[in-house]
Amino acid sequence: MSPGRTSVEPQRPAPPSAASPGPADSLSKQPQPIDVPPATSAPPSRAASLEPSVGAEADDDADSEASASEPPPTTIDLETFHQILDLDEDDTHDFSRGMAWAYFSQASTTFTEMDEAYAKKDLGKLSSLGHFLKGSSAALGVAKVQASCEQIQHYGQLRDEEAGTDLTDTAALQKIAPLLTRVKAEYAVAETWLKNWYEEHGGLGDEEDG
């Protein structure tokens, strides 16, 4: 090296530094929209997921107006029962429930009187009681009890309407005896269904359960 001359070595380009990003790196550092992978996407809306069940509940409410679980065939005349429900002013069904509980009380009293009349072989009284409970049952749509009470009414009048023949006192009492057992069973089924219906549609209210 000659004296007085400064050695100039060729400078090598500095390696890329994290602090000095290149153009491509600069672009990559710009804020970008966040792509959420499908696996981590937000769960579906709760409101949307409830729509089918809400619809199902609405359908159930509509169906349950006709049945609180469908009554046994011919136990309740649903067309008549719906006509009674139409008299209610609101969904508490206070009016029709009052009619139903009055019917329960009448039926209980009438069955007791029927037993007493049968023990006395009082066919006239049996016919009168059958006619009375037939009318009460028809008003509420308790169809099976209505039909059985109509038979008791006719037998008490010494008449078999199905056969189109007259009856003796003994024959009439023989036909009424099994009917008294049957009509009480039919009534028990109807009472249970009606009470369950009112419990599911506004509660039993202040009525006594009995």
Description:
The protein is mainly alpha-helical. The protein has seven helices and two strands, in the order ααααααββα. The protein has a two-stranded antiparallel sheet with strand order 1-2. β1 and β2 form a beta hairpin. α4 (94-119) packs antiparallel against α5 and α4 packs antiparallel against α7. Mean pLDDT is 76; it is low at 1-10 and 16-68.
Tags for this entry?
single chain, 210 residues, mainly alpha, two-stranded antiparallel ribbon, 7 helices, 2 strands, 2% strand
Question: What's the number of extended β-strand segments?
Answer: 2
The biggest sheet, with number of strands, parallel, antiparallel or mixed sense and barrel status, is: 2 strands, antiparallel
Order of helices and strands: HHHHHHEEH
Determine the number of helices (DSSP H or I, runs of at least 4 residues): 7
Question: How is the secondary structure organized here?
Answer:
Blueprint: H1 23-28, H2 46-66, H3 78-85, H4 94-119, H5 123-140, H6 143-156, E1 159-160, E2 165-166, H7 169-200
Quick recap:
With 210 residues, the protein is mainly alpha-helical.
